[in-house]
Amino acid sequence: MPTSAEFPGIGMPSFEASSSMEGLGPVEMESPTQDLVVDGILDTFVTTGPDAMSVWTDTDLDGYADRLSVVENDGDYSAWEYHRNPDGSGEWRQTDQGKVGE
Ligand SMILES: [Ca+2]
Prior knowledge:
This protein is mostly beta strands. It has no helices and 7 strands. It is 0% helix and 39% strand. InterPro entries: DUF6802.
């Protein structure tokens, strides 16, 4: 289950590579710290939990994350993208999953 309890100061959910993103809506970017797209604008922030690291990126700079990569300490990883539906709703879809180094 996604939980933010482990990061009370950040307020962002933490995931493992096997987590389901079902039901998770738009994720607002709080305090980006990294420039992953390398355009001089901070678009990414990283949350780390006991078992996994989550990398959130806002590629279109609308204030909401559209990409998420989760890498577990044992190398399992998964990647997700947020898709908006015509009716205004949206959902996270998994785009990749595997193990680092394999
Ligand atoms: Ca965005």
